[in-house]
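Predict both folds.
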Amino acid sequence: QVQLVESGGGSVEPGGSLRLECQASGFAFETFAMRWYRQVPAKDRELVATVGSTPSDRRYAEFVEGRFTISRDNSKNTVYLQMNHLRPEDTAVYFCNAIHWSRTEYWGQGIQVYVSS
């Protein structure tokens, strides 16, 4: 059974930090690129960051460049999103995504991040 389980969300003040984790199981994690998306009500889901099957292959959306860091630990089947210097506009539900070159794709259930003073 394929599972992507996010954790680490919550509430934080502007300027603060959170680290999201996504624990994967049920598929060959090391062969999938891993992504974090986010979504706010009434808007499309947007891509935040990607890490390839090679951990050094990382890409970011412009709005998080320099503030967020994506990483993966293939020995733990886990992908992380370190979020620093959080802003109110980072408030969203964050989703973990696994995607394979064959277009096989899996999604987590999402986790809320709330940035407010």
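Second protein follows, with its predicted structure tokens after the sequence.
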Amino acid sequence: QVQLQESGPGLVKPSQTLSLTCTVSGGSLTSNLYYWTWIRQPPGKELEWMGAIASSGSYYRPSLKSRISISKDTSKNQFTLQLNSVTPEDTAVYYCARYRSLAETDMDYRGQGTQVTVSS
């Protein structure tokens, strides 16, 4: 059973960098079968695929590409999201997930999510 757990600050000030870490158990980030992914759900809106990292490289949503970076630490079995220059529109519940492909519906495991609020 794969488990994912998000961690990081729940409050970030505008213009600062949002940084979240996902710790994975029961599965390895070194596998070339999966895409380790960040998604988010702003209040009143649908889930939004943000980006993913895999053995083949990193992939980002075009609208976020100038602000987002996803990296991984295989020694800790963790992957990290950094989102720069945040605004209140980045307020959302953030989830880390495992996908079988880059298709936005191809998720098989997801963390419980963590609320991040952007506010001064």
